[in-house]
Amino acid sequence: MLSVRDLTLFYGDAQALDGVGFDIGEGEIVAIVGANGAGKTSLIRAVAGMERPAGGTIRFRGADIAGWPPHRICNTGIGQVAEGRQIFPSLSVMENLQMGAMLPRARKRFRQSLDEVIALFPRLEERRDQAAGTLSGGEQQMLAIGRCLMGRPELILFDEPSLGLAPTIVADVFRIIRRLHEGGMSIVLVEQNVSASLRLSSRAYVLENGRVVAEGASAELANDPRIRQAYLGL
Amino acid sequence: MTWELAANVVTGGLLIGLVYALMALGLSVIFGVTRIVNFAHGEMTVLAMFAAVILFRQFGLDPILMSPIVAAGLFALGYGLQRYLVAPFVTRPEHEQFILLLAVAFALTNGMLIVFGPEAQGILTDYSFDSYEIGPLIVDKTKAIAGLISLVVAALLLGFFRYSATGRAIRACADNLIGAGVVGLNVPYLYALTFAIGAATVGVAGCLLSIIMDATPVLGPELTLLAFIIVIVGGLGSMTGALLGGVLIGVSEALAGLLFTPSLKSMLSFGLLILVLVVRPQGLFGKSGAR
């Protein structure tokens, strides 16, 4: 479905990605793990078009989308739940959801998407007219996921969805990701919570200094002594 | 001084204030979304005034009826300006944006000096000297029309941002630019559209001003400054603030003419500006802690 090859990205002179490659098949859930500054968020931002890669290809359903502007990439069916949630704080919950459905691919199916999102997050219906900035952190994360679903994505890039949330809410977020996956959604999960993301995903890539240093089935990586020592603190 | 006279002066100031408010609304909209300060705002207003003057003198077309046409022209100008000239500067430091827009302002003023000359040029419609009598009030017809149309256009603008999908998308860009990219809003297009809407607003305001005051190229910097005072008094980025600021400035200018001498009118508006900056630096309707 998505196939990234030799992706390089610079911020000025600083290299953030150095020849990264990864694949994700239809309906698969793939984790990308690594320490802070390893290039995880850069990778997400490059795939989503928010950073312009210096080289490499990003093939989604056959088309090379590397260097496309974000609104075009979104419209191919790649949704994003960004780090820090990035909701619109002064817009109401409903307006936030509408913004998720502004893509040409999603506009006509607004009602259907809204019903689906509200079935998944009934809380959002209760708070529909409230300014999104007044929601709790967990509710904001639900809104960010709901808003992404309004764009009718076929692949969702999750960037640190558990960051800054209380442990019980984190469990909720992971449950929802699992549920989306069971519904057939393809998911790329970037997390610093390595053990949880290895449990959730079928395959994983380990990033270090902008390079893929290990890849494989998540269960195997979770038992790899090097990974256990470096990322799981075992 | 009778209270009737005072009431008349205040009403006149209020109506002109509404036109000022409409002009300032354009500035506020552009800044509120793109964070670009349009230093060529007054110059664009004067351009619209001259457009109205030309249409009237050459073709005998009424400036009020022509305001949608002039607004469309300014819309196109604003769109092009943002898309091709300002867009590359959006992420640059503020002083570089400042110089770019200032250059546009100079180019416009001097271009108009070359084309139209330095003389003040006014419009005399067949209703220029009409007035309405409402009880003790005598209201100039030109001011009444200009004020009311400003109010209607301002309401349309507020409605557009509140209720239309595109208006909401523009507000979303102002609210969280990263978020706008995340959900796939076409930010460069929406920015250009915002600039175009701000410029079109100025197009209408310019047409309305052309029946109240004479157009001259050197009016540009004065109007830019006026628009600034209004949005700072009202609160940068706040649309209701710009409306109220405009009315306040209009009334205070009129009162200055009545109580002191017309040449002191700027002193009173600047006094109001200083007072607001001291007492409530974020402006009357501004959010505290805003950039």
Record keyword descriptors for this entry.
heterodimer; A: about 230 residues; alpha/beta; Rossmann fold; four-stranded antiparallel sheet; 10 strands; globular; B: about 290 residues; mainly alpha; two-stranded antiparallel sheet; 11 helices; 2 strands; ABC_transp_permease (chain B)
- Structural class by helix and strand composition of chain B: mainly alpha
Number of domains of chain B: 1
| SSE class of chain A | alpha/beta
Please give the share of residues in helix of chain A. Answer: 25-40%
Strand content of chain B: under 5%
Largest sheet of chain A: 6 strands, mixed
Protein name (chain B): High-affinity branched-chain amino acid transport system permease protein LivH
Subcellular location (chain B): Cell membrane
Family (chain B): Belongs to the binding-protein-dependent transport system permease family. LivHM subfamily.
Pfam family, one (chain B): BPD_transp_2
How would you characterize this protein structure?
Chain A: One of its GO terms (biological process) is L-amino acid transport. The complex is a heterodimer of chains A (234) and B (291). Chain A is built from 11 helices and 10 strands. Chain A has helices at 40-47, 70-75, 93-100, 104-107, 110-120, 122-126, 137-150, 167-182, 194-200, 218-223, 225-231, and strands spanning 2-11, 14-24, 29-34, 55-60, 63-64, 78-81, 155-159, 186-191, 203-208, 211-217. Chain A has a 6-stranded mixed beta sheet, sandwiched between helices. A 4-stranded antiparallel beta sheet of chain A has the order 2-1-4-5, covered by helices on one side. Chain B is mostly helical. In chain B, helix 2 crosses helix 3 (63-86) and helix 9 (219-234) packs across helix 10 (239-259). Chain B has one domain (3-217). A two-stranded antiparallel sheet of chain B has the order 1-2. Chain B has helices at residues 3-34, 41-59, 63-86, 94-116, 141-163, 165-175, 177-182, 187-210, 219-234, 239-259, 265-279; strands at 131-134, 137-140. Chain B contains 11 helices and 2 strands; from the N terminus they run H-H-H-H-E-E-H-H-H-H-H-H-H. Chain A binds chain B through residues 48, 50, 69-71, 73-75, 80-82, 86-91, 95-96, 98-100, 102-103, 147-148, 151, and chain B through 165, 168-169, 171-172, 175-176, 178-188.
